[in-house]
Every structure is written in structure tokens, then in C-alpha cells.
Amino acid sequence: MKSVKRWVVSDGICPHCAPHSSNHFLIKYVVRVSSFFFPFPAAIPRYSLGRLRNIWRLCADRCLDTITRLLLFFRIAKANPIENVKNILTPHMCLIADECSLRGLSLFMITIFGAPTSRFFIVTDNSKRFFDELPIPHGREKHPFADKAYVREVLLKHAIPVARGAVLKHFRHAYKYLNVRYTFPLVVKPRYGSLSRHITLNIRSTEEFRSAIAIAQEIDSNFVVEEQVSGNVFRAVLINGKFIACARREPRYLIGDGIRTVKELAGMENASSTLLVSRTVSEAIPKKGEKVYIETKMTGGHKPVIHDVTDGVHEDIRGLVERVASIFSAKLIGIDFIAQDIALSYTKQPFVVLEVNGMPHIALHDNPTTGKSRAVAGPLLDAFLDIERISHN
Question: Average pLDDT for consecutive 10-residue bins of the chain (393 residues)?
Fold first, then answer.
């Protein structure tokens, strides 16, 4: 029993997953196997079933809605008004809840035996419109965005610029590629995954390379090796193919005052001591105004610095990300890319698309560190309700 419990229940927060809790067994085996069958049977590109994949996805959505209704009918599940559970909502669902409140729409969370779920519904015209995590128009996306190999293959097929790299399974293969094709610095990440879990950046030696592969293989035996492209990291969000917002993300940093050490500054900012990976760095006294980065990852949980750049995006970059959204036929999509200058055409600078996300963190655009606030929840809810009205006519 203890071994089974250890597989299912996480004993703590892994440093390579932090600050997000996760279970490596579930990520490595259960999630990957289940993603193959539900809601699409084409998690691995070579097993693609074409249009049958979309039929499967629609059937899965219908079945899930029916099961949810049955659970509610037999009172196994309960519909909780969103006001009663707002304290446990994710930041992006808080924005959706606020938007529903402004419009006078009733929003509910599904709980099962009192445990919260990521399943919600909005009451429109006396009918329940279900969704998971975010109200994505027309249900789930048909593409396995968590599979970085699949996304990479699709982008390459359509001549979208990506970093040089490959999907590999053994260190000896990676080492061979390193000697023949790649140059440091490198990035290693697991093939499946999200939230920057077990990703290692700025790899500059064979020893670091071997260690990074071992870290990635803790949650997936297959891993992606890519050359690290220098530049700024951006996130564009599109809804129904329309460009909505774009932000430049920067790792969390401290500003030196010429007096205090990095460790003392981190204490003033309530930054975790785990961020200070080097004692030499933590005891250093940065110059006044000097930036000291205390994070490497830029997901929402790592509290990155967000700069809104929506108004300054070059039309060529805007057109490229709109093309990526069209390629994946995504109703909601977040596209991460690297560029030196957002106001310059992507053809005139180093530029690569890093990855795409079917469930982007829309809250980062609502309250950026600098720049204008961009309301993504409103357009997303508009798209969701418009799709539903069309389907009823």
C-alpha cells in the first residue's frame, strides 16, 4: 500500500517542479497514457488517425458532459456558486468569475464529495454550458500541446522558425549530436510537460548536459535538446485567430542598493532562499541599480516581471503568430517566442517559436508590471458565448 500511495500522492515539492506540486509517476506514465486515448488518440504524431481524431474528441466532450450531468443528478457531484469557492480559484479563473459577475451570468464550480475540480459551467438561456479550466470556444483543442515533439514537428512542417534541436532518448545519442550538430549553450526539457517542469537552461558543459538529461528523464524518458537562442522571451495570446495581447517576460530579479547583500535583499522581498543557488551570489553586494536575477523560469508561479508590449509588436511578428494559431486551428492559444526586438521584423533578427500552449495563463496580461492592462477574459468569454449561440441556431 505504501508503494501505491507513493505513486499517487506526492511527498513534497520537487525543486525542478517548484513552486508547483506534482507527482512524477503520474506525469511520466498515467498522464502520458491517458493523453493518448482521451480526448485525442493521436498524442504521438505517427499514430495520427486524421479526422477520426476530431470525431473522438467531440465524442469525449459529449460523454464528459453527460457524465457530469449524471453525477449532479445523483448528487455525487455538487454545483457550487462561484462566490462560495472564489478563494480557491486560479488567478485566470478569478478573472473569468469577475467577468461573469459583471455580465450577470451565473458561474458554478463542480465539486465531487466536497473536493474541488477544474470543471465549471455557465448558465445561459436556462442551459448549462460546461468547460474545463477556461471557457475555450468549442471545447478542447484537438492538438496535444504538452507534447513538445509533436508541436516541434508541426512547426517545422509549416516552415515556422524554431531552435535547432532534436527529440532523443539516450545520453549517448545526445552526446553524438553535441559533437556533430550543436553548440553550447543548450536547453534540455522533457518531451511531455508544462509549467517549465524539469527544464534546464544555459547548459555550458558536458557534465551539465548529462545532469540536465537526468533531470528531464525523471518525468519522461524522451527529452528535447535545443540550442539556446539569445533574446527576450515573449508570450502572445490569440482568441479565434485574433491577436489579443503580447507581453515580454523577464525572470524575477532584485535591484541592488550598493549596501545590502543579495540574501538580505531577498529577505526584504520575501523571496525564497531556495532561489539563491550560489552562496557566492547570495553574499555579494550588487551595485546600486544593478539587476540580480534570482529565478531562471518565467511561469506564473515563479512571479516573473511582465512588460506589456502589445502596441509595439511588428506587423510581421503579429502575422506569424496568427499563422501559428491558424495552423493549429486553436480557439485559444498562447505562443511563446524569442526575439531581440519586438518592433523589428522576425526576418531581420534571431527569432524562434519556443512552444505553444492551449491553456495560457491569461492573468499575466491583466496586471503587468509595466505597460497597459489587457483584458483577455472578456474577449475569451465573448468567443465562448458566441460559439454556443451559433450552435443553438
Answer: 39 65 64 48 40 57 82 93 92 94 95 91 88 79 77 92 89 79 88 80 90 88 90 95 94 80 71 48 77 72 85 97 92 94 96 92 91 94 70 36
The domain limits of the chain are: 2-132, 138-163+230-251+296-393, 253-294
Q: Which CATH number applies to 138-163+230-251+296-393: 3.50.50.60, 3.90.660.10, 3.40.640.10, 3.30.470.20?
A: 3.30.470.20
What is the DSSP annotation of 101-164? Answer: HHHT-EEEEEEETTEEEEEEEEEETTEEEEEESS--TTSS-SS-TTBHHHHHHHHHHTT----S
User: How large is the C-alpha radius of gyration of the chain?
Assistant: 22
Question: Rounded CA gap, 292 and 279, in Å?
Answer: 14
Contact 300, 196 (CB under 8 A): no
The predicted pLDDT at position 304 comes to: 83
Partners of residue 110 on adjacent β-strands:
79
* Model confidence pLDDT, tens digit, residues 332-355: 999 999 999 999 999 999 999 999
Residue written as cell 534570482? 294
3-state secondary structure of 108: strand
Phi-psi domain of 9 (left: phi exceeds 0; alpha: psi -120 through 50; beta: other):
beta
∠ CA 56-58-61, nearest 5°, is: 110
CA atoms 331, 337, 342, 344: torsion sign: negative
- Report d(CA 105, CA 308) in Å as an integer: 29
Q: What does the alpha-carbon distance between residue 384 and residue 139 come to, in Å, rounded to a whole number?
A: 9
Whether this model's pTM surpasses 0.70: yes
CA 206/CA 184 separation, integer angstroms: 9
Residues 259 and 265: their CA atoms lie apart, in Å, by 10
Strands 291-293 and 200-203: unpaired
